[in-house]
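fwd from M.: "can u put these together and see what the complex looks like"

so here's what she sent:
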Amino acid sequence: MTTIETDALVVGSGFGAATVAARLARAGWRVLVLEKGPRLDPLRDFRRTQSPAYLRRYLKSTSSRTLGLTYAEALGGASGFYEMVSLRAPSIAFTRTDPDGHAVWPGGLDRRALDPYYDVAERELHVEQIAPADVPRTGLVFARMLRELGHRGERARYAVRDCVGSGFCISGCVFGAKQTLLDSYLPQAERAGAVILCESEVRTISPLTDLVAEPSPRTAALPAVPLRYEAEVRGPGLAPVTRGECAARVRARFVFLGAGTVGTAALLLRSRPALPRLSSALGRHVSFNGSTKVAALLPNDWPDADMYAGRSHPGIVSYDFLDSHGLVVTAGKALPIQAVAGVRLRFPGEPPALRRFGPPHAEMMRLFRRRVLALAAFGLTAGDARIDIDAAGAPTVSLAVNDELERYARGARALLVSLFERAGFTPLEAEWLDSEGGVLPEPHFSTAHQLGSCRMADDPARGVVDSEGEAHGYPGLFVCDGSAIPGALAVNPSLTIVAHAERVAERVIRRFPSGRMPDPSRAGAPGAAATRIQLVPRKV
Amino acid sequence: MNAQPVLSRRRALGWMVAAAALPLASGSGMIGCSTMRLAGGLLPGAARGARRRADAVLGAFCRTVVPVAPGQEAPVMRVYDDATFPLARRVPLLVRDLDARAGERGFDRLSAAEQRRIVVAGTEARGPIGRIYRGAVLLTQAAFYASIYDDEAGCPAIDWPGAGALPEPEELTYPHPEAFLGSASGADGNPS
């Protein structure tokens, strides 16, 4: 079996993982990044398409009757497929408490503490506020609604340059306008010597030493830190396939988990027999931004919206309801595939079956492009969901809808309906669909904003990692992705994940200086990382 | 009650395999040759007939679910053979059930209202049949409205222009955005 040794093994290549990989490599660490999904070239592989076969190649999901989670498995994680919305979390998100009154966030971590890292993240991802002249029609209609009702609306912030408004953000930007990790942190990491291998899945992690009997240093020169963890890896990225399955081992001084809220939790749950001191909070406290959606028909005398033209996110958000309702309201857009596969709309009072198909459904689909406005509420809901694994080690999700969540869903929906009605819109009834076209029960939440499955907490009983992202009881094992973010943010979480990862990397580098500089001969070298692998495999 | 028996491709293939195996089992080359000629002459024809029948029923199903013009169903009907979706394996069952619910005339010969009633009943059925109907409706709609087999084609019926052309700059927004925008709570778009 092939075994490779490195300073840092980074699992995943999404927002958290790519950030840490770039920072460590630039600090002179030997870094190996293992990504489960395929390598992606934005200008070659992305397509303007609604083909389910294409989308399912990169976007995965796990769902239950009450909660559906979508996530990406590809180089760059979700950054290739997100809507580019890049907002700082509101201060109120950091003040939330668990039902028993304990603060959700660790002490000392709040918006002010994260702001310097948000600054860095915004620079790296070229985040800018959308100009008024670039706000899509749907966003302008929403802005007018807010203005007429006396509410404030913000032009949102995006990681994009020279957007042409093709409207296919969710299938990847073929114009290279979206500022993905494939344009920023990942090439930085490679230029600094990091090796990035795709189609390589880390199945388990186990400690190489008795970390209790031989405590690891809290600070030291990097070479003085022993190899502490071993990862079992599958996939053709690292070792040739034998007997239908390939296997390799990676031994590392540090492991940084960035496989996402679903992937990181599943990996640690599979590894639990070897990591028995992991907190019982593992896989629990999963938050999902309480995503609630309502659509309505525009008043006849209002100008058209447009579901299809312009960037996928319509440009306007409102923070006016954060203090009163604990949520952010935004408009939404959807391509035909998203509308067809996700929801069936009907006018109030109509029987549910009427518009499921045939001419009545076609009539609603015709209205959908220009005469329908959809609003979404993202709320500071509690982390009530949990991720487990099945017998094969694959992730599953569950959410028991309690009274508080039921109240939240009713309240969020009532707020959106009230906004529509006060502005003279006609709110539509909706049936939300599962992947087979079946009608989901209410409330059902679906999101790509899942957070917290390995959340930060000062107390090991309440969280998996400490405020610096290091696992309680397992020095050198870090979580740098959304799974460490301890609570819902009420905004898209990507920027907060990058900020968290920047903070984790900065503190680790400070504690464990490498004394090495990246090899200048490799700076800027293009091409596949596998050809530049500097790690020396050895047979054991 | 089925007026016309439906032969799925899988069943036809099964018959052909059984027919081919018969001479081996009997040990008679003569019988074998006759059996193979019989199979070669008749079963493919039966399979062709079954396919025509399935196409007729699925075409009618397609027109019931989405506003596709008669004779224009083929691009949408690709979804029923697409092995990407589990439905492809269950289409023969869908065809049989549609015909069974239609009675002697067959599903494709019913009025539009009668066809709609049957599809509504199918989607509301319990168990696997209901799942097959609901999945078939969903995929038919995806194939038609989202034109998943031809990104450029779009769907004029719902004003979906497809992926072939970029929207013109004047389509992206309105010329005087300030007429829509109101006050903001902060200077940069971030929450406080």
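replying to her w this: The CA atoms of residues 75 and 201 of chain A lie 12 Å apart.
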